[in-house]
Amino acid sequence: MSIVGLDEVTLTTEDLGVARRFLEDFGLALASESEHELVFVARDRTGLRIRRVGDPSLPPGPVEGPNIRQAVWGVGDAAALERIAAELGKDREVRVSGGLVSSVDDDGLAIAFRLTQRVPLTNELPAVNVPGLPPQRKVNQTLDFDAPIRPNTFSHLVMYTPDLARIERFYVERLGFRITDRFTGMGVFMRAEGNPDHHQLFFIQRPPGKGLNHIAFHVRDMNEVMLAGKRLHAKGWASSWGPGRHIYGANVFWYFKSPFGGNIEYDADMDVVDDDWKPRETAPGPDTAAIWSTSYPPSAGH
Ligand SMILES: [Fe+2]
After folding, report:
1. How far is the CA of 302 from the centre of ligand 1 (A)?
2. CATH superfamily of 3-115
3. Where is this region: Disordered (predicted)?
């Protein structure tokens, strides 16, 4: 299906002013602003659309209060958009308008698809000095600990589900996602066909059984996770888990509470895989959720 990843997620909040301050502090860039909407983007133009909880123009939300209202997936070409519209049109309403193919997943979440609007990223490799190797950071140079940190790209979306098997079938059989790993009876990681990152989606079958658990943005490297998290914490926003490093996906993480009804994560250095990857499975728990972290995971798990 040639889905390349999350282009945009629509979230709701009680207070657009608080949301604006939070996302500016998080490091995303304000792309547009009106009386009823904020759009924030990462370096590659993937990002978040923020509206008020009671906004009548949005698809219905999974739970009352701030939460997710739509996930927009970017696809690689127009043929893929047509294939997705035809596939979903077999058993559910599909609307096509302005280049956007809109429908719902099997949990009732509004999902949409468009030609991806992401732009290519440019980055320099982190300059790390390793014993026995020529210094990567030039002699007499040090690190710039004050450099601004902009999240690079949307990493993943994590949702609660009432039925893990059903939602797994939907994304795999209808949209071509690949399963990458599983927590037995609790969670499934999956990636889009056109994205090598270990996961762009993770579903958790635990109470409340619906709605947003968290979203994540990639920063460049572990150093940026630590610095960005330290800065966000210093501005008064509450950490919910981390910093730490996951085992499945191997991403370094730091989670914060957000004004959108779920957490938001900085992550970096996630595994990339292809179709030779063999999905693993293990019991969920603190020892399998992270190889190390500075705090125990919240009761919700990931
Ligand atoms: Fe995550």
Report:
1. 6
2. 2,3-Dihydroxybiphenyl 1,2-Dioxygenase, domain 1 (3.10.180.10)
3. 277-302
Gap from CA of 253 to ligand 1 centroid (Å)? 7
Same fold across 3-115 and 153-293: yes
For residue 91, report the distance from its CA to the centre of ligand 1, in Å.
31
The tokens describing 288, both together, are 């399998």
Q: Which residues of 112-143 are buried (b: 16+ CB within 10 A; e: fewer)?
A: bbbebebeeeeeeeeeeeeeeeeeeeeeeeee
Which sign does the torsion angle of CA 107, 112, 117, 120 carry? positive
Instruction: Give backbone dihedrals phi and psi of 168, rounded to 5 degrees, phi first.
Output: -65, -45
Q: What is the pLDDT of residue 283?
A: 97
Question: Comparing C-alpha atoms, which of 66, 25, 27 is closest to residue 218?
Answer: 27
| C-alpha 215 to ligand 1 mean position (Å) | 7
* Residue 199 alpha carbon to ligand 1 centre in Å: 9
Centroid of ligand 1 to alpha carbon of 98 (angstroms)? 31
Q: How far is the CA of 299 from the centre of ligand 1 (A)?
A: 14
Q: What share of the chain is helix, strand, coil (3-state, %, to 5)?
A: 15, 35, 45
**Chain-centroid distance, C-alpha 82:** 25
> 185-234: per-residue pLDDT in tens?
999 999 999 999 999 999 999 999 999 999 999 999 999 999 999 999 99
What's the gap in Å between 263 CA and the centre of ligand 1?
Answer: 9
Q: What is the rounded (10 degree) CA torsion for 156, 162, 164, 166?
A: -110
Distance, in Å, from the CA atom of 200 to the CA atom of 5, rounded to the nearest integer, reads 7
Cα-based distances in Å from 152 to 123, 187, 221, 294, 296: 9, 26, 10, 24, 27
Going from the Cα of 204 to the center of ligand 1, the distance in angstroms, rounded, reads 11
Class of CATH domain 153-293? alpha beta
Calculate how far, in angstroms, residue 266's C-alpha sits from the geometric centre of ligand 1: 8
